[in-house]
């Protein structure tokens, strides 16, 4: 997707993210979590995620929502002196689901979660 977006002028990419409702699904190892979630928080912080957007973490680890949020806070790199409430508000649009990467039923549950998140307002 990055290569695809790189072909467009920056403002067109910003407009695409800003005005389309998006559900971001993060498939990553824990080691990658900090960079990816930090970038996604940057989109959120700068207003490039439209209202109703959601972020879904998908991993083999069976984490409660609170454990998932704690991991996000642990690994994310937030800019210095962010508005104090922003990371907590950001967590409200983050959810997670556990599943295997080779099981059809787990991807069906993920799809159901995506459909639920798409209904968020």
TrEMBL record:
InterPro entries named among the record's database cross-references: G6P_DH_NAD-bd, NAD(P)-bd_dom_sf
One GO process term, biological-process aspect: glucose metabolic process
GO MF terms held by the record: NADP binding; oxidoreductase activity, acting on CH-OH group of donors
SUPFAM superfamilies attached to this UniProt entry: NAD(P)-binding Rossmann-fold domains
Domain Glucose-6-phosphate dehydrogenase NAD-binding: 40-118
One Pfam family here: G6PD_N
Name the record gives this protein: Glucose-6-phosphate 1-dehydrogenase
Species of the source: Gigaspora margarita
Lineage, top ranks: Eukaryota, Fungi, Fungi incertae sedis, Mucoromycota, Glomeromycotina
């Amino acid at each position: 997707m990055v290569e695809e977006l790189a072909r467009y002028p920056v403002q067109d990419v910003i407009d695409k993210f800003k005005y389309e409702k998006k559900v971001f699904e993060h498939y990553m190892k824990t080691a990658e979590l900090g960079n990816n979630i930090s970038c996604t928080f940057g989109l959120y912080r700068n207003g490039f995620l439209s209202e109703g957007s959601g972020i879904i973490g998908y991993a083999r680890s069976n984490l409660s929502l609170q454990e998932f949020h704690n991991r996000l806070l642990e690994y994310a790199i937030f800019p210095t002196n962010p508005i104090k409430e922003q990371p907590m508000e950001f967590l409200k649009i983050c959810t997670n689901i556990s599943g295997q990467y080779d099981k059809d039923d787990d991807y069906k549950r993920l799809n159901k979660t995506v459909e639920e998140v798409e209904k968020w307002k």
